[in-house]
Structure formats: C-alpha cells, structure tokens
Amino acid sequence: MTPFIQSKLAKLQAQYHDIKLYAVVDGLQYERHLGDEISYQDGVSPLFRQPEDAKIAFAGPWVFELSKLSKDVIDELITLEKSKPSLSWVFSQLDMFSLTNNLVDLLNVQLPGERFALFRFYDPRVLIQLKEILTKEQLAHFMDNIYDWTFYHDDHYHSVV
C-alpha cells in the first residue's frame, strides 16, 4: 500500500485496537484496468450479492480485506487507484461480514416520489461531494463504525470527514 495509507493505518492502530484496512473497489473499473473480473475469494466480497444481482455483481462494488491479500493483489489495487476513479480505503474495527452488511445497506437511496437510486459511494467522484450533499446526521450514519474513509481524487488523498 502507499506510504500515505500505511501511515494513516499505523496512526489509527496506535489509537484504537483491532483496526482493519479495507479497500472498496468498483468492479467495472477493476475489470477495465486489469482485464479480469473480480471473483469471490477469502478476503474479497461483493456488495451486489442478492440473487437478482448475480449477473452484474462483477461490475458493482467489492470489499477487499487487505490483511488477507497477497502483495501482488495489493500492488494491483494501488495501480488501479492511481489510474481510474475506482477505489477508496476504509479503516474500521468491524469484521468483513459486518462491514459489508453496513455498506450494502447504504447502496440504495430513496428519492422523492417513492423512487430509489443506486448510491455510488464507492466512486471517489461521489465521495469528494459527500460533505456537501449529506446532512451531518446522514454523514454520521454513513460513517457508522468507520474511523476513516480515505480516497484518491485529483492527484491527492482526501478523507470523507
């Protein structure tokens, strides 16, 4: 991982117990950049996991638990991060199952008129705008059980909060 992310992880681990680092990855951008779909494996889980989403799960958001990944996979994620708006870093004490459940609950937002839309929070181009589009209460809900959510946008790292 990058020195910036390593430093942030070290600071949080010194302050809190059991902090884990996760990457939230846009599956479609991953496939476009690396030429292969993300597949389910230990330490990698899709957020589109309902049976009706099976055909599009590869293109949706995925969560990677960095402690369970090889150096090669981590290096691929870093190259992806620098080349496409596709990845963010989540620092949390939650286990993989709990974190993915929390994130799945954030995927759909209700619009006026009883309509729903996909909330592309896994896209850095959306993350950069969260402070302006969410209320303080909504942002607190979004960051529930997450100590930091960092992403690379316009050649700089940013934090959701």
Automatic annotation (TrEMBL):
InterPro entries for this protein: DUF4123 (IPR025391)
Residue stretches making up the DUF4123 domain: 21-140
Protein name: DUF4123 domain-containing protein
Species this protein is from: Serratia silvae
